[in-house]
């Protein structure tokens, strides 16, 4: 099977300007993702989809491919992911005659991923014909069983009435709740094309008990992520 790693990296970002090029632990943010992908042993191609010439130049220097520039209409703040993925898949098939069987989606905003997580996710999907997708997960940072909402009078009510928030007094008694961490998504391309979205079908959780997770939206997020990279030995 042909295994394609796709790294989306547009030039614009609002919360942290030029985020993909901003230095994270001494390297452009996107370089961390390219390096982890290059260290993985299960990938056939590593392609960056970008609309930005500087990002394209840096990622090529790091060892990734940039076989096309992403069209502006697929690079806006609210542009959905699937059309960008479809554009990449179609270009490789039509312009280069190369068809991907598995798509490994690697977001640059999760630089704390490990190359072994990429390989395990790919290997899991390759060995399990009953699965359509593998996604990395972590424990939810806060249990929805202890969450509430405010009604129109300002009174607390359960966020989900089925969650029974008063039933659990101790953390260790809570039912397990996990969340997708955005580190690695591997999906069969035929499933992607049918679902016309980033993932789909029967999804397997490649779970890690570590709670390391951060969304890079603010300078504080950035500082915390640098700390995590050093803690994990990835800086």
What does this molecule look like?
The chain has a six-stranded mixed beta sheet with strand order 4-1-5-9-6-10, sandwiched between helices. A hairpin with a 5-residue loop joins strand 7 (148-150) and strand 8. The chain has 235 residues and is α/β, with parallel strands linked by helices. It has six helices and ten strands, in the order E-E-E-H-E-H-H-E-H-E-E-E-E-H-E-H. It has one domain: Alpha-Beta Complex (Spore Coat Polysaccharide Biosynthesis Protein SpsA, Chain A), CATH 3.90.550. The relative contact order is 0.18.
Tags for this model:
alpha/beta; 10 strands; two-stranded antiparallel ribbon; single chain; 6 helices; 235 residues
Query: Major sheet, described briefly?
Result: 6 strands, mixed
N-to-C order of helices and strands: EEEHEHHEHEEEEHEH
Kindly, what is the distance between the CA atoms of the first and last residues, rounded to a whole number of angstroms? 32 Å
CATH topology: Spore Coat Polysaccharide Biosynthesis Protein SpsA, Chain A
Unreliable parts: none
Structural class: alpha/beta
CATH class: Alpha Beta
Supply the CATH architecture. Answer: Alpha-Beta Complex
Query: How would the global form be characterised?
Result: globular
Strand content: 15-25%
- Strands of the widest sheet, in order across it, are 4-1-5-9-6-10
Helix content: 25-40%
Q: Counting H and I runs of at least 4 residues, what is the number of helices?
A: 6
CATH superfamily: Spore Coat Polysaccharide Biosynthesis Protein SpsA, Chain A
User: Number of folding domains?
Assistant: 1
Radius of gyration (Å): 19 Å
Number of strands: 10
